[in-house]
Design brief:
The protein has six helices and nine strands, in the order βααβββααβαβαβββ. It is of the alpha+beta class.
Length: 154
């Protein structure tokens, strides 16, 4: 398993980016200003994009695991790819940033993942998904309305 920084042609990973953020226009808002990393393990298995939000805050804007291949190949499920990427980001940016934050929908499928990694709820942006997406967004069968921010000290 290796993690590689992507410095050009980031849109080649669009199918993977869209797994974590369903609206390409939203991805376009941060993709070029963000730093992208891909995790390879016999092919690309996961990616993430992080951005400098100022005041010592580094934000995970997009983190996705290639679920299509994982669903097809059960031996690749629950391999810790997303956790490995977050651990990499924490180690790489510790000392350069004070806080790592992630914004996500208030989903029982997503929030507990971050909480297991030591993130705690910080704040909420009301109606974020309704105001910024052209269609309703569901996660784990839950209609997402508000953006929940979770933070972790680096």
């Amino acid at each position: 398993m290796q993690i590689i920084k992507v410095t050009s042609n980031k849109k080649q990973y669009l199918p993977l980016l869209l797994l974590a953020d369903e609206e390409e226009a939203m991805i376009d808002r941060y993709l070029e200003r963000g730093t992208m990393y891909v995790l390879e393990d016999g092919g690309v298995k996961a990616e993430c994009v992080v951005t400098d939000e100022g005041n010592g805050v580094l934000e995970l804007k997009n983190i996705a695991v290639e679920i299509k291949s994982l669903a097809t190949l059960p031996q690749f499920q629950r391999r810790g790819y997303a956790k490995a990427l977050i651990n990499f980001i924490e180690a790489k940016y510790k000392g350069r940033f004070k806080i790592l934050q992630a914004g996500t929908g208030d989903s029982p499928a997503t929030v507990p993942f971050y909480q297991k990694l030591g993130f705690v709820r910080s704040h909420i942006i009301k109606n974020f998904f309704a105001d910024n997406y052209s269609h309703p967004i569901y996660d784990g069968g839950v209609l997402l309305k508000d953006m929940v921010y979770l933070r972790k000290q680096l």
